[in-house]
Amino acid sequence: MVKVSAAEVQAGGRAVRVSSPDRIIYEATGRTPEVSKLMVAQYVASVEDGLMRALRDRPTALERWPSGVREGMRLATGPQDSKAEAFYQKRVPKGAPDYLETATVTFPSGRTADEICPTEIAVPVWCAHMGTLTFHPWPVRRDDVDHPDELRIDLDPQPGTSFADAVRVAGVARELLAELGLTAYVKTSGNRGVHVYVRIEPRWEFLDVRHAAIGFGRALERRDEQVTTAWWKEERGERIFVDYNQNCRDRTIASAYSLRPLPGAPVSTPLSWDDLAGIADPRELNLFTVPERLADGGDPWAGIDDEAFSIQPLLDLYEELPGGEMPYPPDHPKMPGEPPRVQPSKKVAGHWDADGNRIED
Which of 87, 244, 250, 268 could, after both became Cys, cross-link 76 (CB 3.0–4.6 A)? Predict the structure, then answer.
């Protein structure tokens, strides 16, 4: 078999060059054949309607797996992972085409960066050519990068729980949001979790939206005993964790229609609430099946931009329910009112400074 050095994928009105199109990105599994780099790029083009609804005008970080996905490969999460095979690209890669547009974002550290800001499907297809599998858009639009227009509820199954548990809890979350006057949309994470999104008015800062997620999570765990907002894993038990910190500045979730770096090329797939209840195994939703679902039934999130909601009811919950401020991610600067970042099991008699360091008596 003769190897082809490059191929082209039609993306909107552009032909996007894809190098090394025969490179195997996903190996074959018991349910799916192998997936080449060209097939990844073609998949991205095929889900244009849904993917661009998720990415358009949003600063977007790229999760790049240029050598493909293999058992034992790692995703770099910091400078200590210099030998990892995959990495996050937060700044525009070299060699970007002239039609690629950018947006400037500010990280919690105060540093800024120009990130890719997709405005047409040719951009994500080019990103696929660069080894991108998963797109990580900010919950903002480029005309106002400091005020999120999405509330993201990440329902993360802990050990001892399952995708089915996350689906059930998502239904409870939908009911609670509806009681508060908010319309929710749902998608699979592409793994075991479930993501619930609400389009919100872009008039609150990241801190407020994070507090809204905490308030909602606390109300949800009072309604359902299988839900927890406990930040420390040792306190979560066999429950579904509401990861409120996904609403922090520079914390992102895999976009709708993104591939995930797992065997079988699974996809983070938007669903109707009725369809979600019928999914027994999220691996059914993959590179081979999702384009057909989208073509036949349309994007279940087609109406997500029709109405934006106030998060004031959720902020009221944050103020009313006990608990106060919660820990931030370890790479986030220390925030006012935040409790010490110390695992409960490591707390002993003594005092702790604002960074979680023990001060001897």
Answer: 87
Residue for token pair 């008015």: 201
Residue 360: predicted pLDDT = 46
- Chain-centroid distance of CA 181 in Å reads 24
Angle separating helix axes 290-297 and 37-46, nearest 10 degrees: 20
Using CA atoms of 84, 89, 94, 97 in order, give the dihedral in degrees to the nearest 10: 130
For position 77, what pLDDT does the model report? 85
**Mean of the per-residue pLDDT values of the chain:** 94
206-223 and 312-320 are packed helices; what angle lies between their axes, rounded to 10 degrees? Answer: 70
Which residues, 6+ apart, have CB-to-CB distance to 139 below 8 Å? 58, 148, 149, 150, 151, 152, 209, 247, 252
Q: Are 218 and 173 in contact (CB under 8 A)?
A: no
- 344 and 235 Cβ atoms separated by less than 8 Å: yes
Which of 165, 177, 150, 151 shows the shortest CA–CA distance to 236? Answer: 165
pLDDT computed for residue 361 by the predictor: 40
Q: How many other C-beta atoms are found inside a 10 Å radius of the C-beta of residue 109?
A: 10
Token pair, residue 11, equals 């993306």
C-beta atoms surrounding 118 within 10 Å: 26
- Collapsed DSSP state (helix, strand, coil) of residue 223: helix
pLDDT value at residue 2: 60
pTM for the predicted model, two decimal places = 0.94
Rounded-to-10 torsion of CA 260, 261, 265, 266: -30
**Angle at CA of residue 298, ends 296 and 304, nearest 5°:** 165
CB half-sphere exposure, 276, CA atoms < 13 A? 28
| Residue 351: Cβ within 10 Å count | 10
Question: pLDDT tens digits, residue range 302-349?
Answer: 999 999 999 999 999 999 999 999 999 998 999 999 998 888 888 654
Q: What is the largest CA-CA distance in the chain?
A: 72
Residue 40: closest CA among 98, 116, 123, 127: 127
pLDDT(225) > 90: yes
Which tokens belong to 200?
């919100």
Half-sphere exposure of 140 (CA within 13 A, CB side): 26
Q: Which residue's structure tokens are 């190996």?
A: 27
